[in-house]
Fold this protein.
Amino acid sequence: MGERKIRVLVAKPGLDGHDRGAKVVARSLRDAGMEVIYTGLRQTPEMITEAALQEDVDAVGLSILSGAHMALLPRIFELLKANGQDNVKVFVGGIIPDEDVPRLMEMGVVGVYGPGTLTDQIVQDIRKALGQGVGF
Amino acid sequence: MLVDAVRQGNRLALGRLLTQVENDSEEGRQALVDLFHYTGGAHLIGVTGAPGTGKSSLVNRLAYHYRHPADGALARRVGIIAVDPSSPFTGGAILGDRVRMRDLAGDPGVFIRSMASRGSLGGLAATTSALVDAMDAAGFDLILVETVGAGQGEVDVASLAHTTLVVEAPGLGDDIQAIKAGILEIADILVINKADMAGVENTERALRGLLQLAHPVTHLMHGVFSHAPAQDEPPSHNEGQYWEPPVLRTVATEGTGVSTLVAEIDRHREYLQESGEWAMRERLRLVSQLDHLLKAELVARWQMSISDAHVQAVIERLMKRDLSPWKAVELLLNGGGT
């Protein structure tokens, strides 16, 4: 019998070109033993959810620095649902104003991570959201 | 149920099936058992080569070409399996081949799946061939399998694919690299990608020289110094005809040379079918798959049959040099540890 790995899509929707944060997170998840599908810059919600479907990921991490999160997230949740992937956990990093965080969590985002977040925190939160202990 | 949905083209079901198959779960195995009957229809194309030669970009362009044929031909459905390495330390992986494949987004006739090598060393993962079977049964006309960035020994893709492309790029090493055994020997088609870079003539000369050495019979058939692929003459299919790997130049980022590459891939398929080599390769592929499964199953059964204490006892004796590894194997296979 084979092994089960956590698969995470790390994507950067929208038009800003700063992917350093996304890459740091991707690398940290890899170092935590996860399989990270990295899709790169300037992804539309359609591209992101299509990739999530084909890759059958457990979680999607989005890096958004452009301020478009309140437009992008509802669309991504809508498409995930339409694809039958309501089970996928979504977390968001980047520049997200504090007042938007509760609304994002209401939509179903499992974590919002601004500058200065310890990457271990993201790893732990993903494992927790997927119902898995640290030893997974 | 998963199986029916996959056969009916349900993409969510296919994605989930591929996970089950990749994890070698009970459900995945059962699905493969049910689906195997429907496999054998796809043309399996392996794409291998050193890191940075542009394999993913080339796969992107190839798939795009199959989806948008210039000559009014029917668009073909394309499955892509892209393998990237797992970290030997953490088991994690960054699978980044999709970055180069964005031209294929939004096309329901394309299905891209990334997979990590999970400790396998031959350029593919242990379950890659099973994933190929699943995509094959799902009805894709072509399945492109991109290996991890391969060096000189990662040649597993050749026993999986009908047609193997080896992708080179200018400036990656002198001709002594080329005459080493390994990856170049498995090429059905040699692609020099990034052909707009300096040094492409040297690379091409080295590769063609190598092919001359590797295919001495060519000289008899095409004249002494005629080592160029006979593109202008229709391939003859006489008894004893064989395939001479063409050397093609491409610039994947611009699409240059891709239509010629597609034509050569089709020509190779025709050659395989007309020469009877298709059946031979199918046999090779199935034998190799059977071989892997059989070995894994035998090991699993043996492990079930023997207690860990026995194994540990034998290891202790090995450590004391009381027993040689060869004798230890005999002991263990005979079911005892003492």
Summary: Strands of chain A lie at 7-13, 35-43, 59-64, 89-94, 109-113. Residues 69-82 of chain A form the longest helix (14 residues). The interface with chain B takes residues 1-5, 7, 26-27, 29-40, 43-44, 46-47, 50-51, 53-56, 83-85 of chain A (CB under 8 Å).
